[in-house]
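Margin note: ligand = methionine sulfoxide.
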Amino acid sequence: SDSTKTTEERLLSICQLLETNINYYNWVGFYFANGDKKELHLGPYVGEPTDHTIIPFGKGICGQVAVSNENFVVPDVAAQDNYIACSITVKAEIVVPIFVNGKNIGQIDIDSNTPDPFTEKDERFLEFVCEKVAAII
Ligand code: SME
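Resulting structure:
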């Protein structure tokens, strides 16, 4: 039953649901801050495997969100200079932080192969998802 699922399995299920049901969500994954090391480590994800399993704070879109504590919506990844490319098919990205007791402990990261697909509805929806995630980790 559901109660036997691990946190990793639950997070993977969330990635699968999002990638399957929202056509412009093409890579969906979680990164989590690693203690005092000022690094993000890749958690469960769905999509092409990435070389970027560890991202230093400040580096790329994900690393910037680890520092800013704010959503980062990128309509066109080619226009970003502090960006880590995982796949040449990716056109846009959204990263939304996950807060536990007010602390930014990680994030959901979504890549899209569609240019400029993300709206405020995605931000509000993913904030809701991140609140649910915060409650199960
Ligand atoms: N593009 C991200 C790196 C992670 S991949 O999208 C999976 C970034 O610039 O931080």
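Helices lie at 7-21, 60-68, 120-136.
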